[in-house]
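Recall that a protein's primary structure is simply its ordered list of amino acids. Everything else, from secondary elements to tertiary packing, is in principle encoded there. The following example makes that idea concrete.
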Amino acid sequence: MILTVTLNTALDVTYRVPRLLPHASHRVSAVAERPGGKGINVARVLAALGHEVTATGFAGGPAGALVRELLAQRSPEVVDALVPCAGSTRRTLAVVDEASGDTTQFNEPGPLITPAEWTRFLDRYESLLAGAGAVALCGSLPPGVPVGAYAVLVRAARAAGVPVLLDTSGEALHRGVAARPEIIKPNAAELAELTGSREPLPATRDARRRGAHAVVTSLGPEGLLAATPEGTWQAAPPRTLSGNPTGAGDSAVAGLLSALTEGLDWPERLARAVALSAATVLAPAAGEFDPRTYEEVRGSVKVTTTTAG
């Protein structure tokens, strides 16, 4: 079983408008609601790939109840181990401009988590580790959760002998990487914030020296850059795909974790992650991917050894 952790789950709401204009009223042509948060997206992709997956984190209030209902409807294979909280799960609002294809995102901060709720979550997390083959720790921290939360969760997983992939940003990433996770997956901006360098290859290697066993950096349309104990690679899709990139990084996490649990080598892991990321750009929402594009791209991803920098 693969365990995903989403401390700041979300109800993802998407509005589609003919054209998004500042200071104007808009008629919404379509509305969609989906279970969200980075780890929930990862869990849904893993389930679609055929993996046993359990999702934990916090869910509360009417929005949290709807997240759980939608998760059961859309991805019944995902085991719901979310921990109830008194505050209401946040909503994220995405406004899609149909004229340009661009998406504007609004993210609420999340519920206030009490010390007692955090303790209950830790108990649930440690019990779930007993049956886990890998763990994904994903996304932002809701108010009230200690800034070093991911470091605590990484250490608990390592003590249980479970490999961890950490996908977060800011101080949570800074503290989490010091706990020595198996993999971190920042994007270029998050990597620059962590290391102070905007040169992807030196920064990726620097992040490894800060504690991560391996670092996989998202380069957007250019694919992934990975620094690992076995070598350094760049993996790129065969072509640029136009669409909505929301959730593409979460699909890459699912690809990396699924390939890790299957014992694939690094070039194969990266090819799967890039193909899933590309296939998500053509899907209607995060947590989903286009199967035909995935199969088509997976065999065409170019993975090259990188030595410069």
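The chain has ten helices and 14 strands. The longest helix spans residues 266-281.
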